[in-house]
Amino acid sequence: MLKRFFHLKIAMDTMLIFIVIMASLLVQACGSSTQTNSASSVVVSLSSYLNNKGTGSGPGQANLDGSGYSYPANQLPQAGQRTLNGISYQFPTSGSGADDNVVALGQTINLPQGNYQQALLLVTATWGSVSGTVTIHYADGSTSSASLSVPDWLNTSGVVNTSYRYTPTGIDQEAAHIYAVQVGIDGTKIASSLTLPSTARPSPNQPSLHVFALTLQPAVQGYSARVLDAHSTTKIMSGTSTTQVIEATVENNGTEWFTPSHPTRVVVQGDGIETVVPAVISELGLGEQVIVEVGIKKLASIADGTQISGMVVAQTTGGSANRFTFMLTAGIAQYSPTDASLSLHQAPDWFDNAKFGIFIHWGIYSVPAWAPVGKEYAEWYWNHMNNKQDPTYQHQLQTYGPNFNYDDFIPQFTAAKFDPKAWVQLFNQAGAKYFVQVTKHHDGFALFQTQYSHRDSVDLGPHKDLVKELFDAAAQYAPNLKRGVYYSLPEWYNPAYHSSGAFSGGPPTQYVTGQQIPYTGYIPVKNYVQDFQKPQMLELVHNYKPDILWCDIGGINDSRTVFADYFNQALHLGQQVTVNDRCGIPEHDFTTPEYSSFSNLVVQKWESTRGIDPDSFGYNAATPDSAYATAGQLITNLVDIVSKNGNFLLDIGPKADGTIPAIMQQRLLEMGAWLKVNGEAIYNTTYWSRASQDGNLRFTVRPNQAFYITSLVKPGNQIVVNQPVPIQPGDVITMLGYAGGPLHWSQQGGRLIIDVPPAAQQAGQYAWAFKIIWKSR
Predict the structure, then answer these.
(1) pTM for this structure?
(2) What is the pLDDT of residues 417-427, one digit of tens each?
(3) DSSP labels, 554-604
């Protein structure tokens, strides 16, 4: 697995997210929305509130964060009204001597009085992420409040992104960002003003919230839908073999809920296509947004991949139709090994809905199974033992002697007790929906049959195709489990691999003397990528037909050719597959932060990975059971990640004989027991577009069905939610796992208050999920 000091890759991931988001913005820029029952956005001038200059035309000209750093003016939108993410904002003057943002110090901003659904703000934070409360004041004297959580300006891609920033004296090659956030407003009342959170004035190590622009989205009287975005996809609708998915983002911008008696029906129109599966929105609160899927088919006379003018029509019973025009790609064309072609691919619905998977790090490193606890990855044993300054070197020397080389562990990797049926049944009991097996780690030892090397588990060690045995067991005993393969593109000591850094290539050397030693099982090749790496990857694609191709490290590669082959095979088979972001090329379906997460919602799909071990993916025999993550910690990880649009890939490290350590089995079973009760708040949910969190609370939505509030701490007598959750009088709140019936709830000052009786408090463990059931009206 990727070494700790490679965590700088997360910064690269955010740049890739930026590429995807900018591509999305280009699509939106080509679209337009029209409707008869609509009102234009209201842009609010902040000129009288500006109190900080954060943008300059050169080093030292501005001071956003109190330490002399600033945005470069030439990479920000020009001053004036600008459309970002489909919303019109008044972007402040930048690069001059004038202030251009509002540091939030509790100011009250006067609004043009009116009925609004949302306040839309362009914001950023300095010196860490910032959370606070925004208060909306109404003409009748009442107020409502909502929590606001804003990432640090260097954290993750936003709607405005720069590739560098200015320092007091020069240029820092670090991307900086401005984010779009929304604050819900009660559209049935006349709003008069908005009070910002109170944060610190900019100074080093003092988190501050900065506001660049404010726009209000009016509420349309009655029933009204607004299509915010639409784009074609390469996804096939579930349960079909040819129905292409078109995604559309729809907002309820009226003053009435969408209900089963007043639903919104969404179709796609265009020459040569027809809607065969319309989307129906039967529950959506005021100001809420939902991404829907519309299934289309094209005429046989139209070639796959043809660009046509399309239109999304959203019609609400009792309201006017809203139309959004965009360029549509009809049919899914064969992929070619180019960025333009591969970038069209995206993660399938099954991956987004699965939420929880199992990672398996198992190989030669499982024999020594050692690393300094909580400090290093055990699967990096070979690399660490070659560093005489590393504790692993001393461990190897003292335990095995100066003449025992890493490859001498190969005969001890027996897999003698490997029970693939028991493994997949355990994954099922854990509530996992997919697994990813390491098929070759950085030590170059393959766990599958390969004709391009004898350094594999068929020719050596167990003398078994371990990947095939696990995949076959999953197909027979757990057919619901999707199957993935991990593949390390480089190898530390392969004689044909030549690069720099930690992966400089081989041949291997004796760890004490430094003399060259054989690379066991190696078949000489002239070109590492073309004669070995790419052919091995294609063996995995063709022979095992994985649902996930999970690369690691990147480096030199021909992944574009592999991707095109993989995607085209899936098209032929009717299989929905996905790829991660570590294959050495920009194209990917999801990003992969490691032993970390994001502090806020990330719209681009992502997957967080970690081991049950505190700092290792491979089995570390030195780790005491007491040091392993608890079930509560892992479930907190899962709930938090899912609320922010991520999946959780939790790793186990089997022993060399194929047994899964008891502590790991216990943790998986504990997670499975929790998911059996609370899984509906996790599986098949989506993120809430307004907010992912409120203190220790996390939010998920099951479209058209329910809204979930999950507390990461044991609740007291009440749960208080500051966010404007979608609920109406007559709706019912229950707690999953509590058989005592509906809970009493009320609303006060825009807050939702749920009474939690003692029996309910005691009914759950680890995390407590509350379900808002929308009652038909």
Answers:
(1) 0.87
(2) 999 999 999 99
(3) --S--HHHHHHHHHHHHHHHT---EE-S-SSSS--S-B--BS---SS--SS
